[in-house]
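User: Study the shape:
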Amino acid sequence: MSGLGDIVGKEVITADAIIIGTVEGVAVDTENWKIPAVRVKVRKGNEGALGLNKRLVGAHKVYVATPQVASVSDTVTLAVKKDQVSEVLVDGKRLPVTASIMLHKKVVGKDGKRIGVIDNVHFDAARGWEVTKLGIKLDKDAKQALELQKGLAPASQITILTKDVKSVGDMVMLRLDLEGLKEYINKKPVSKK
């Protein structure tokens, strides 16, 4: 299981051990809770091999389809060689929301009361890039309402299973209200920090 912080910034290498860039983010399909592509900031000098024009300022950012990622460890290793990478790029305009857009989205309960903001997207690259949980940084009022044990400081962050997300739009709406979330936290396998 990984979170965005575990993958962002890692070097992306091809099957022939060429560094093409670094991971800058991921795309998130909130309908199926999958990551269809990894966003890569292209390393200077690799533009030609990827079919891109050189830029005077800034670096190109491309999306590589996750089925073409062979492994994620110290680096993100692709299943294709450098001269094949352009064949596995995905048009960013055809992708769903990016994780960077998901981050900091407000989270509300089913009753519309604010709970917090998304602060992480957890996924499992080994299980088809399935998004399993979302990290939520709790608002002050929600933190106090969700206090679990007397005498302990309330949790400032929780994770919630994606199956308990009702919808994603301008905000993220859960299938639970604050009271339901309190019960959920006490019964379900979520982490409290």
User: Anything to note?
Assistant: DSSP finds four helices and 14 strands in the chain. The longest helix spans residues 178-187. The longest strand covers residues 114-124.
